[in-house]
Design a protein that fits this description.
Blueprint (H helix, E strand, L loop, with lengths): L2 H5 L3 H12 L8 H18 L8 H20 L31 H9 L2 H21 L3 H12 L4 H10 L1 H6 L5 H23 L1
Length: 204
């Protein structure tokens, strides 16, 4: 199947319109954006489809494409948690113009924001986080732990986000035998507990 044939199907437009309407995505996410997400994941799934798994190719491709597009949509609306995201309220980003006060001159909001924001604490926090991840990596005893800890580092220490990263990586999903994002979260949480306990024993 060529990409042109795949993209030419009208069902992607219908699915994109449904996702935009069903979850009330923010105005900057168009139906065409969602359609592109659907197509990208559909093409990726076709390339990785394994008929030995006993699932029809159209069902496999469409289900994964919808799941991917929904996750992107939930993230855009500020509700990207993988459990309960479908029913969670939107938390759209607020533009600077939305924080302006009456009588503000141009640039006043940005100046107030800059005054209250310091780069140094953020850099310090990132340096500390890198050190923690490096210590955890050194304490890993097998590839499963190492992959999980690295995902945790990329996710900024967020276990749910680390689980999403692992599950979205098709190679990692199969290698770690992750049947769901919930299973991925269980893996990351158990690895964190084991590695932290190991580090505690070393420190003691």
């Amino acid at each position: 199947m060529s990409f042109e044939t795949l993209a030419g199907s009208a069902r992607w437009e219908r699915l994109a319109a449904f996702i935009v309407r069903r979850w009330r995505l923010p105005p900057w996410v168009s139906s065409d954006d969602v359609r592109q997400d659907l197509l990208v994941e559909a093409w990726r799934c076709i390339a990785n489809f394994d008929p030995a798994r006993g699932v029809a190719v159209d069902r496999y491709v469409e289900w994964n494409a919808i799941t991917y597009a929904k996750k992107r949509g939930h993230k855009a609306r500020g509700s990207y948690r993988h459990r309960g995201a479908d029913g969670a309220p939107s938390r759209h980003e607020l533009a600077f113009s939305g924080m302006a006060r009456e009588g503000d001159e141009d640039g006043a909001v940005e100046e107030r924001f800059a005054e209250r924001t310091s780069i140094e604490p953020v850099q310090h926090e990132l340096a500390v986080r890198r050190q923690i991840v490096q210590r955890m990596e050194a304490a890993c005893e097998n590839p499963r732990e190492l992959v999980s800890v690295r995902a945790l580092g990329l996710a900024g220490g967020d276990i749910e986000e680390a689980a999403r990263l692992l599950y979205d990586d098709i190679d990692a999903r199969y290698e770690l035998r992750l049947g769901s994002e919930h299973r991925a979260e269980q893996l990351v949480a158990s690895v964190v507990r084991a590695v932290v306990a190991r580090l505690g024993d070393v420190a003691a």
